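sry for the spam today, last one i promise. struct tokens for design, 79 residues
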């Protein structure tokens, strides 16, 4: 049976899981508006223009929120 199915795929790397967990915790600490822009941009792949239309704010506001969120994440995560 094992020959037919092959070996199970290796589990996720523990260091990758820890890194993701740290990132998720840091995102949760962001102000809601910054976190929303960041998640829509980097996790869902929307453009700044699409995010601006969805949130009903100017495109420059989205850019400002993303810049502030990245700066805060860099400070918290140290990278």
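last one done:
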């Amino acid at each position: 049976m094992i020959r037919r199915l092959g070996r199970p795929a290796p589990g996720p790397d523990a260091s990758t899981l820890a890194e993701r967990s740290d990132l998720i915790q840091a995102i949760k600490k962001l102000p809601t508006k910054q976190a929303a822009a960041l998640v829509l941009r980097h996790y869902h792949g929307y453009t700044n223009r699409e995010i601006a239309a969805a949130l009903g704010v100017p495109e420059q506001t989205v850019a400002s929120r993303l810049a502030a969120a990245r700066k805060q994440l860099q400070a918290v995560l140290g990278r």
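The CA atoms of residues 16 and 22 lie 10 Å apart. ok im logging off now
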